[in-house]
Amino acid sequence: MCPEILSLRLHNTAPVFAFLLREVKVPAHHLPRVICRRPRLLVSDVETRLRPTLYFLQSIGIHEVYKHTDLLSASVEDKYLPKIEYFEKVGFAYHDSVSMFRRFPALFCYSVKDNFEPKYNYFVVEMGRDLKELKEFPQYFSFSLEKRIKPRHQCCVERGVCFPLPLMLKMKDEDFRKRLDVCCNSSMPKSNSPLWGLQICK
Question: What is the pTM of this model?
Answer without folding.
Answer: 0.86
